[in-house]
Amino acid sequence: MNSDVKIKKDLISRIEETNNLELLETLQAILEASDVPAYEMSEDQKKAVEESRKQIGEGNCIENDTAISNLRQWLQNQ
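Below the sequence we write its predicted structure tokens.
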């Protein structure tokens, strides 16, 4: 038997046997949340991410520590 089929049968059996309302409500919430599609980016966001990846690939970026250091220095001069 496939492991997914076995898991489903085990879950069905355990759900049918339980009287724990809190558990059932939690399971229901999990299942409902899994029906919600993952966040989808707009076309503009996708283009911005692609451009960023291209810049990184070309070496047009700085390390995070350097960026933070530069920002702190800039803030001190304000």
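The mean pLDDT is 92.
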